Amino acid sequence: xxxxxxxxxxxxxxxxxxxxxxxxxxxxxxxxxxxxxxxxxxxxxxxxxxxxxxxxxxxxxxxxxxxxxxxxxxxxxxxxxxxxxxxxxxxxxxxxxxxxxxxxxxxxxxxxxxxxxxxxxxxxxxxxxxxxxxxxxxxxxxxxxxxxxxxxxxxxxxxxxxxxxxxxxxxxxxxxxxxxxxxxxxxxxxxxxxxxxxxxxxxxxxxxxxxxxxxxxxxxxxxxxxxxxxxxxxxxxxxxxxxxxxxxxxxxxxx
Length: 255
Description:
The protein is built from 11 helices and 11 strands. It has 255 residues and is an alpha/beta fold. Helices cover 41% and strands 19% of the residues.
């Protein structure tokens, strides 16, 4: 069936459901405009077509019921579910409600279906973290990138306090297609990495550090003022945003 034929069949089914009283006019309008109206949200079902990636649920502050309902709206339309910043108790409740879903407590990510998607962008996204306490942000970046179809590798605990740890991995750094570098404290690691490679470097400041780090602001400013040219900087602790950007940069490998 061609895309036009599939669209006509979907429209025919939708109109029949409205005529039979099985679908409200408002809900049908939402379907046609790419929106699925809920009492508390407008689920953007057209985002996958516009951007190549379905809407991702920001789980912080949402209840398990809200995340479940948004997830069901996405799954009804054959779209993968990814929810970020999901607390463990909420994640457990959503997984139980959805059934075929998975939750990672370190990355605070929930996704459905539970099986990881195939790798469709085989060029590697490499996630590098400065210290062990940067691990949760790096985990969010790595798992998000994998859920978006990237081949992902991780190098952990190679901060500038022991630069020899990083230099052992120069060949891996240079082999990657896109690099995501997570660091707190003074935020120097992305500048060092960017000075060694000819690939895009996405810097992620983390909220790790003592008082004068100001919850990651010091690292953020250091990364924005990097002496290494071409470093892209996302917001503090935003591993998801870094993975999303890396996926957009890695699209040349799409089938």
